[in-house]
Amino acid sequence: MTTSFNHFPPMDDPFDSKCASAKANTALLKSHATNKLKHLLESYVPQFNPYACSAASVAIVINTIHRLKGDTENFTPITQQALLDRIDAVHWRDRLSAKGHKGRHGVTLADLQRICIEVLDAHKIPYEAIDALYLKETMPDLNIKKRQVRNKLVQLATSSNDFILAYFTQGELVGEWFGSHVSPIGSFDPEKQTVLMLDVDPEVNGPYWVSFDRFFTSLVGSNNFYHRRGGGWVHIRIKS
């Protein structure tokens, strides 16, 4: 996929290659949430092939949790391939291979939730919940869902125990390729109403900020041309 930002107006507070803007923006967060964002940025990796956005996203979250809980000086990050070698939920490794699994590549939102459960269990990380949010344009209560999503993002931005993997239509945010994609959410700025996307696509210029409205549109996924309509996220809340 070739991604260009030229089709859109400039992003709010776009990142440079070193994510300097994101680090400056953490002044609005509580200290423990700031530390989580710091470790998310340290753990950031791009997906290793066109199908591996779920592996990169899960690796970022798992490595962030380990950094929050352990000795960061002696920490060796878990690689995407190591996750795939250890966890075979929903034929994950095959789905991310060039051949695919029964002609299918990538994972569904339900698959992503199952993968997160098995990964945290395998790494003996205690959690309070691993929930999936499903959104579609035909939902009668979509405006209520939108308020709930915003409230959850506020919680994410002030908590060290919450992580969200967005399952969204990437083209709504960066243009050109309107297919399903997975990436972690770094934070939320309630004052500017912007969402920090830690997009794992190596053809996108690093993490970036987008408006909340555009982010929610990408979750609903009504313009998804390459996969089933709809999207959402997986929310992980680990125990303190």
Order of helices and strands: HHHHHHEHEHEEEHE
Residues in helices, as a percent range? 25-40%
- Strand tally is 6
* Order of strands, widest sheet: 1-6-2-3-4-5
| Major β-sheet annotation | 6 strands, antiparallel
The amount of beta strand, in percent, is 15-25%
Structural class: alpha+beta
Shape: globular
| Tally of contiguous helical segments | 9
Quote the distance from N terminus to C terminus.
Answer: 39 Å
Give me the Rg, rounded: 17 Å
Spans of at least 5 consecutive residues whose pLDDT stays below 50 are 1-29
Q: What is the average of the pLDDT values?
A: 87
Lay out the secondary structure.
Elements: H1 20-25, H2 31-43, H3 53-69, H4 80-86, H5 92-95, H6 109-122, E1 127-135, H7 142-157, E2 162-169, H8 171-174, E3 180-189, E4 194-197, E5 208-211, H9 212-220, E6 231-238
Antiparallel strand pairs: 1-6, 2-3, 2-6, 3-4, 4-5
Helix pairs in contact: 2-3, 3-4
Walk me through this protein's architecture:
The protein is α+β, with helices and mostly antiparallel strands and 240 residues long. The chain contains nine helices and six strands, in the order H-H-H-H-H-H-E-H-E-H-E-E-E-H-E. The protein has helices at residues 20-25, 31-43, 53-69, 80-86, 92-95, 109-122, 142-157, 171-174, 212-220; strands at residues 127-135, 162-169, 180-189, 194-197, 208-211, 231-238. A six-stranded antiparallel β-sheet has the order 1-6-2-3-4-5, sandwiched between helices. Helix 2 crosses helix 3 and helix 3 (53-69) packs across helix 4 (80-86). The chain is globular. The protein starts with 19 loop residues before the first helix and ends with a strand. The relative contact order is 0.20. Mean pLDDT is 87; it is low at 1-29.
